[in-house]
Amino acid sequence: MGCKLNYTLPRRQALGSCFYSPRLQLVGVLTWFWPVDTAGAAKIAASQHNHWCSVPYGEVLEVDSGRVDNPPMSTSSHSPSRIVLGVTGGIAAYKAAELVRRLRARHAEVQVVMTEAACQFVTPLTFQALSGRAVRTSLWDAASEAAMGHIELARWADQVLIAPASADILARLASGRADDLLTTLCLATKAPVSVAPAMNHQMWAHPATQSNVNVLRARGVRVLGPASGDQACGEDGPGRMWEALDLAAALFPAVAAGPLTGKKVVISAGPTREPLDPVRFISNRSSGKMGFAVAAAARDAGAEVTLIAGPVTLCTPPGIQRVNVETAEQMYRAVHEAVVGAHVYIGAAAVADYQPAACAHQKMKKTSEHLELHLQRAPDILSSVAALEQPPFTVGFAAETNDVERYARDKLTRKRLDMIAANEVGVDRAFDRDDNALLVLWAGGRRELALQSKDQLAREFIAVVGERYQLTRHPVVTLVPQAS
Ligand SMILES: Cc1cc2nc3c(=O)[nH]c(=O)nc-3n(C[C@H](O)[C@H](O)[C@H](O)COP(=O)(O)O)c2cc1C
After folding, report:
1. Residue 483 forms part of a structural domain
2. Number of H helices, E strands in the chain
3. Does residue 17's CB lie within 6 angstroms of at least one atom of ligand 1?
4. Residue 233 annotated in active site
5. Structural domain count of the chain
6. Can you tell me the distance from the alpha carbon of 207 to that of 269, in angstroms, rounded to the nearest whole number?
7. What is the pLDDT of residues 162-199, one digit of tens each?
8. Of 222, 251, 280, at which residue does a domain stop?
């Protein structure tokens, strides 16, 4: 067997954003500095301030027909949640438009407060249309302040969320400044404050920013993110604002009962790496995308999720506890620790079947024409979990290049699993892709889940897991009265 080396090259995409602001007198192409979303591009025309920015954007904006007069800010009892959404000056300000929609979809009333800098990026008109409320931009608004508007806002809010939160606002909040409407109301409110930082990764890593964030955390401010990923400067790193959906989910944790509500679910995902020497390893092509999507879907179905992740470059879905491992042995130990008391275990990781019998302490030298590697079986995590005295509902994954159903059913029986999800792998199939299809099998049953995005597929798969879990672990017993 030959030596296999794996090099992971981060996918980099530089997306340009043109920007013109009469105030800053700046026309430029922002391809080098700020984190951007690579999903697509949409233009947000900012007619009110006669500037416009072309920003990356994944979805067409739906604009509510705008009722613009603010309803009175009664602080008496109310049913929907009231969110003050602070928007500060950063490229990610355009994502706050999507956030307003996500919050309103959860029946929240949203009052947007923009900093002066934020108005250079997105027009207040956009937020006004989406929120149905006139946007507040200044402490010096005579009409609002006649009734002490900033205090009224501070009292009205059930939660304050600042998204995106610039490095500047983090610094101003940490030092207790009250030099604009947003900082003033943050000091005046009793409502919980959350911030979603978004900035260049060097700015985020700067000790000043980190110290400000620590101060805020210590004061009880929730810091949501940032996420890691491609930055427009061509580098990878933490600094991207969390996606709108994740921020909305963080503010409104699922309360509706899902099929896995209250259940502890452990999921393993990604490849493992089996070291040959300090610089080489044997691995496989798993990206972890399917397992991570399954983890997010299980969370959305109400589960408390622990994700045991092999070496992947994916961000942890919010609300999930992640344990990083590298080798099959480490994954085995982490899974066995996590499954104690768990209801469901889903083994979606591509665990090595074989590992080098020994790992050289020093880099192996190129001395001979041929190299023989001595491999031994790696621990079988799935069967060991299924063989526990009180096993969780155990679900395996099977990646096959041929005879998918036959091999998968054999694995289901041999390893005594409750369920198995089989997928055909190969060139342009399953591995490191954003779509997939699954064949889900259990004793006496099967369900085909069609080719679709891994996120959507994961939701359908988790629905089947929830259904089968309920049926096998909590069967409904109907008592039929006996005829006398
Ligand atoms: C084109 C451009 C993009 C910027 N993007 C960011 C950003 O993503 N994150 C950030 O913290 N600051 C960014 N800044 C700097 C802030 O806009 C600046 O610090 C401002 O004072 C923030 O004010 P605010 O916190 O009151 O909104 C950017 C500045 C410019 C000119």
Report:
1. no
2. 14, 23
3. no
4. yes
5. 2
6. 33
7. 999 999 999 999 999 999 999 999 999 999 999 999 99
8. 251
